[in-house]
Specification:
The chain has 245 residues and is mostly helical. It has 11 helices and 2 strands, in the order ααααααααααββα. A hairpin with a 7-residue loop joins β1 and β2.
């Protein structure tokens, strides 16, 4: 089996297979040990081909941090995920994850799961909050979650989980500073979908003011004209896959 096929199987995307967080961690470890360009290629290919099925799997589980959420967390940096998060299929993911954390507070906390799991959950939630915002999350739930995560931070030693939880706290505060940070991080994640992919360009419209050209295959890169699209192809082609959405 290829590494992609192993990721699919351990994520539970094969019929009759629920997946396994332990096996998925093992497969992700293999990818993370690869040279970065090879690992990035695998993450991008998986995202392009399996995001709709993975989100369907995520919605079907009631776990606070399911095997599908674990896999999603590892592809949130890809332009495929950033584009997909704005489709109707992905609507309400941040609100759903908040509800699951609140509902599962007795089973999922620093006393019952590892700090690694807390860190992964914090990464996933903070990215969802950056990309989808707080509008779909009731104010009462935001307050409850803020208090819950703050309690987690106070009970943990200075590990990476504290850092990812503090990212969530900053998003949930929703003050002027946190909103500014949210806009900055979101702009960084969306950059490849809005700015010309040619090195050193950065345009957001074509020279005549018309909309950017979108890569017809992956729909995850844009260009200010055919000349820059051709110029960028050598770097883009290894991460360009036919998207299923």
């Amino acid at each position: 089996m290829t590494i992609i096929e192993n990721l699919v199987a351990s994520s539970g995307l094969n019929e009759g297979n629920e997946g396994s967080s332990q096996l998925l961690h093992m497969q992700l470890g293999i990818v993370q040990a690869m040279p970065r360009p090879e690992g990035y290629k695998i993450y991008h290919e998986f995202a392009a081909k399996y995001l709709p099925a993975l989100v369907e799997k995520y919605r079907a589980s009631d776990d606070v941090f399911s095997v599908a959420a674990l896999m999603l967390n590892n592809i949130t940096f890809t332009p495929y995920f950033v584009r997909f998060i704005n489709t109707p299929t992905a609507a309400g993911l941040a609100a759903l994850q908040v509800k699951r954390i609140l509902d599962g507070k007795d089973a999922f906390n620093p006393q019952t799961v590892s700090h690694t799991e807390i860190a992964e959950l914090g990464q996933f939630l903070s990215t969802l909050l950056v990309l989808q915002g707080l509008d779909d999350i009731p104010a009462d739930d935001r307050k409850k979650l803020f208090d819950q995560i703050l309690q987690w931070v106070r009970t943990m030693p200075p590990v990476f989980a504290v850092e990812t939880c503090e990212r969530c706290l900053m998003m949930l505060e929703n003050d002027a500073e946190s909103r500014g940070m949210q806009r900055m991080v979101k702009a960084s994640l969306e950059k490849g979908l809005k700015e010309c992919g040619a090195p050193g360009c950065g345009r957001k419209v074509q020279g005549d003011g018309s909309a950017m050209l979108q890569c017809s295959k992956c729909k995850a890169a844009v260009y200010c004209g055919t000349a820059h699209q051709k110029q960028a192809w050598a770097a883009h082609k290894s991460l360009c896959f036919q998207a299923t959405f």
